[in-house]
Target: Lipoprotein
Amino acid sequence: MFRLAFVVLALSILSGCVTPIPLNEQVPSVEYVTKDKVLIAVVDERKRVKKGKPKDFVGLAHASFGIPVDWHVKQVLATEKEDKERNLSEFLAHRIVTGLNNKGWTSSALVLDKVPSEDEAKAILAKDQATKLFVLLLKEWYFSINLNWVSSFNFDTDSNVYIYKYKQGNVLEKNFAGRDVIEESAGDSPQNKVLGAYREQLLEILTDKEVQSALTENN
Model:
């Protein structure tokens, strides 16, 4: 009962009275485009999920007395009705696809439970009549925020990017890992800071020169 009260308190502190940033401010906006049809998949292999956390788990909030409360997409990051039914992989894939299509891409989300082999990727591309497959493998994607005072908090990520082409197979495999320190000011919405940090991490990946080259070069 006490833990439930702390959960409610943490969520009320998190949401506050600040309006969530709109979807078009949550998505990565790249300055390049490909005419090819691109499939986007996010695969979740986070250690915490493998140990039992649900797939919509995103991190921890430390509320009153420093008691940690699990964060989930549906409770703290859902800004669209459909988000409440999305796990983290689906949440991120939707943001990537929306951001790319806003810039003139033809991309769509694909649900995968593992990184495909070259043959599997080619079969997927053939079935969906697409030219390229972008897979983001999550090994770490985690926040820990203290809601008791205004401070900075850490956003830890470790992910691999795989890009496949219909004719060539796997053309790129690259790791992106690090810790971003997210600064807060009085009046900031933790929810919006998280959404913004997600956007910036996805943008960093998509604007990487090797990733851009693999996504834009012809087969």
In short: Confidence is low (pLDDT under 50) at residues 1-16. The helical segments are 2-15, 47-50, 73-77, 88-102, 118-128, 190-206, 209-216. Residues 23 and 79 are 8 Å apart (CA to CA).
